[in-house]
Amino acid sequence: MSIKTIIIDDERLARSELKKMLTDYKEIEIIEEATNADDGIMKIESLSPDLIFLDIQMPGKTGFDLLAEVEKSPKVIFTTAYDEYAIKAFEVNALDYLMKPIEPKRLSDAIQKLQYEIQKEKQDTQNIRGTLHDDDQVFVKDGERCWFVKLNEIRLFESVGNYAKVFFGTNKPLILKSLNNLEDRLDKKTFFRANRKHIINLRWIEKIEPYFNGGLLVELKGGEKIEISRRQTVKFKEMMSL
Asked: Same structural domain for residues 110 and 148?
């Protein structure tokens, strides 16, 4: 299985050193390189890699800025000369954090983690029975409390680290599911990825208005106001024939 990979680093030497080290891993297929965050964002959006090796300190935007701007983040292994960003790196769900110069053993550990994650996701996908529809009931458990909820009653999913907050009625329990995982299962005709952090139920939209940078602001019947990013606005308008 080939893992499509982009290396994003402003130092040419660092990129070529990493490329050389990655030749030991036949499953890693380097499809592109980028020298700064904007270049990286463009290549991630157009090539949809499975994995990025991402430098943090680059001219202009940082690696964290890049992750804040991509709609659907691939798996991330940070490569950096600075160790003060480690905690923040794991807050954005990075797989690993490699200090430069990268040690072969640390790279090997990171690739093992990556393989484990991919295997786990594969099993999860095999366990999935297919797309969930409006009338399907889902079981939601948060601590001691449990609910059986029809999907058409859920108006919003919000990403909170490795969890997703589920909005229905006055309840907002957390479930251990990523937004990407949920997006793969939900019916695209009803649920829409508004931005990096939110999936909205289109049937719960009360109001739509123009917003910053060519995006839109939607208000749901529950009162939540959610921004539809500029990139997603194009898809949203096509879907809603606006």
From this structure: no
Beta bridge partners of 28: 3
- Whether 99 is in a domain gets the answer yes
Q: Which domain holds residue 92?
A: 3-127
* Residue 107: per-residue pLDDT: 97
Evaluated on CA atoms 74, 141, 127, 192, the torsion sign reads: negative
Q: Does the reported pTM lie above 0.70?
A: no
Looking at 127, 159, 180, the residue that finishes a domain is 127
User: Cα–Cα distance between 33 and 58 in angstroms, integer?
Assistant: 14
Q: Is residue 26 part of a domain?
A: yes
H-helix or E-strand containing 5?
strand 3-8
- Distance in angstroms (rounded) separating the CA atoms of residues 73 and 32: 16
pLDDT in tens, 75-111: 999 999 988 887 787 777 788 999 999 999 999 999 9
Q: Is residue 132 part of a domain?
A: no
